[in-house]
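ok so for the tutorial part 2 we go from a plain amino acid sequence to predicted structure tokens. step 1 is just haveing the sequence, like this:
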Amino acid sequence: MSLHTSLVTSYRKFQRFIARQKGIIAAKRIANEQSYYPERERKPYNEMLKENKVWARRFGEANEFYTLYGFDVKNGPDQSQYIDYLQFRNTRENANRVGKDDAQVVLLRDKLLFFQYMKMHGLPVPDVFAFLKDGKVFNLSFDEISIDDLKSETDYFLKDQGGECSSYVKHIDGFEKLNTIRHEIIKGSFIMQRKVIQSDEMSVINPHAINTLRIVTINKQGRCYVLSSLLRVGTAKTGNVDNWAAGGLAIGIQPNGYLKKYGFYKPIHGLKESIHPDTGVVFEEFQVPMYKEACEFACKAHKVFFNVRAIGWDIAITKDGPVFIEGNDNFEISLQQACDRPLRKEWLEAVAN
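step 2 — the prediction. this is what the tokens look like for a chain of 353 residues:
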């Protein structure tokens, strides 16, 4: 073993040790968190504390979704059926060939490439009409144009070309708004994407944001199938986005397209709801329009990303049908396991060679 390899190995072991220790320290905080299921009897504090310490030692990290998964209640879910994030991440990156010469993940991560590739294959995506590079504006023929050429554009989104989790998304409702943020886009790459209008049926549950489906598909040796799905719904707190991290709700979907009973907040925002807090829609009574079609479209789209084993699709439902907002190779699985079902066994089978 070379000195460099030895140092890298030692450093990684040190990192895992530090993460494990942080997880053990976090165990006390997690055991004191509110329960997502206050209607059910909870485990004794010492038992929860012990379980979180065991998880941290075993998996090298805190289980931040302990209460979200319902592990804190008596006779709750079997923890062994849930995959931890580190194993999930490592197997996901290996299956998606991240870092390999033939990896296709850049086609998902770069929003301009994603738009062009999807359009080339006749798959519905929001229209991108221009992009910016270090303050300069270009059309889709890669010709530089004047920013004044955008004066007629009045309703679109400006997005970081490689951004994740809505890292930089601005709704532009006119040229004046674009001018007010020009100082923010002097450096970097951004796309200009026309606004998607969701269907009237989807607006019923929340009209102020595009409420998107997250559909995870697997492409294994040319056979594509849906592993799991959920619906993300915005609230008054999230404004014009449905982002879970911003305070939105995530709700599981039954095979017939009807939502499951509860929508879940991220732990820092709250617990769960059975009724939308703003519109009063009862989740169990709401059927996602065109759900079957969205699943079929997701599998169809995955076929052209043949070197990516697993993709988390963000799909909007418009009056004309499903539209792909994004495809993510580096999605997380915690929400799927919280809203849908434990996925350890199915996931490991999906990514096995």
